[in-house]
Automatic annotation (TrEMBL):
Organism this protein belongs to: Pseudoalteromonas rubra
Penicillin-binding protein transpeptidase domain residues: 30-254
Pfam families named among the record's database cross-references: Transpeptidase (PF00905)
UniProt keyword Signal present: yes
The organism's place on the tree of life at top rank: Bacteria
Keywords: Signal
Name of this chain's protein: Penicillin-binding protein transpeptidase domain-containing protein
Signal peptide annotation: 1-22
GO molecular function per UniProt: penicillin binding
Keyword Signal: yes
Length: 262
C-alpha cells in the first residue's frame, strides 16, 4: 500500500469540480478534523476545531510545496523539463500509479500526481545544510529534518500544524520568502490546480500513516475569488489509506463552502 498520493484532476475538469456541490458533509466541531482559514481582505481567521488546527503533524505530500520551491530555486529542476526516477534506488512497486511509471516526468506532473520516488530522487541531490537553510528561512513547521534524508517528511522528524501551513502559504504568496523572482513565477504555475472565470484554486494534498490503523489526510492551499485571497489548511483522521484519499478533498471543499470561501 502506498504511503501517499495526490491525484488531483486536470485543468480541463476544473470548471465542473468547482461548480459541483460536494456530496460529503463538511468537517464539524468535535470531529477528528480541522480547517484553518485566513482571509486576506478581512484579515480574519476562521477555524473548525481550533485546538487541532494548532497541533503539529507530519506534512506528508504537502511538504512538496516547500520542497518544490527549494528544488526550483537551486535549479535542481527546471519547469517543463522531463526527469526520470532513480530506479536503482527506487525500483518500481506494484502500487505505483501510471503517472509515476512514465520515462519522463515534468515537475508539474510530479507535483500534481505526487510522484514520491521522483521527489526522493531530486531530494538526494540536495544537501541537508542547503535544505535546512531554506526551511529556516521559510519557518516551516518545526524545521526538523534530522530524519532520513529522503523521507523526513513521511511521519518522521518534520512536523507542521494547520495554522503553520497557512502562515507559510501567506509568506509564500506575498513573496516574503528569500527566493528568486523566477522561482515564484514557476511555482505559481505548478501550484495552480483548478480555475474558472471567477475562482482559482492552488492546492496540495498529503496522506500517510501516523499510527497503526490511523492515517492523516491533508489539503492545503489558496482560494482566489471575488472576495479576495483565502489561505487554508485542512486535515482529518481516517482508518486507512483508501478512506482518506477518497474523502479528504471533497470534505475540505465542503468545509470551505460552509465557511463561505469556496
Amino acid at each position: 500500500m502506498p504511503l501517499l498520493t495526490s491525484l488531483t484532476l486536470t485543468p480541463l475538469l476544473a470548471a465542473s469540480v468547482l461548480s459541483t456541490p460536494a456530496t460529503l458533509p463538511a468537517c464539524q466541531n468535535g470531529q477528528a478534523c480541522t480547517m484553518a482559514v485566513y482571509s486576506e481582505r478581512t484579515q480574519q481567521w476562521q477555524f473548525i476545531n481550533q485546538s487541532r488546527a494548532q497541533q503539529a503533524y507530519s506534512p506528508f505530500s504537502t511538504y512538496k510545496v516547500p520542497n518544490t520551491l527549494i528544488l526550483l530555486d537551486t535549479q535542481t529542476i527546471k519547469p517543463g523539463q522531463g526527469y526520470q526516477i532513480d530506479l536503482d534506488t527506487y525500483p518500481v512497486k506494484k502500487w505505483w500509479f501510471d503517472a509515476w511509471r512514465k520515462e519522463s516526468i515534468t515537475p508539474q506532473d510530479a507535483f500534481r500526481y505526487s510522484a514520491l520516488p521522483l521527489y526522493q530522487t531530486w531530494t538526494n541531490l540536495l544537501s541537508k545544510p542547503v535544505m535546512q537553510k531554506y526551511l529556516d528561512d521559510f519557518n516551516y513547521g518545526n524545521r526538523d529534518i534530522s530524519g532520513p534524508h529522503d523521507k523526513f517528511w513521511l511521519n518522521s522528524s518534520i512536523k507542521i500544524s494547520a495554522v503553520e501551513q497557512v502562515t507559510f502559504l501567506r509568506r509564500l504568496q506575498t513573496q516574503a520568502l528569500k527566493l528568486k523572482p523566477s522561482t515564484f513565477q514557476a511555482f505559481d504555475t505548478i501550484f495552480l490546480q483548478e480555475e474558472t472565470a471567477k475562482t482559482k484554486l492552488y492546492a496540495k494534498t498529503g496522506t500517510g500513516p501516523v499510527a497503526k490503523g490511523k492515517y492523516i489526510g491533508w489539503y492545503v492551499g489558496i482560494v482566489e475569488n471575488s472576495q479576495g485571497r483565502h489561505y487554508f489548511a485542512f486535515n482529518m483522521d481516517a482508518k486507512n489509506f483508501k478512506e482518506v484519499v477518497s474523502t479528504r478533498v471533497e470534505i475540505a471543499k465542503a468545509t470551505l463552502n460552509q465557511m463561505g470561501v469556496l
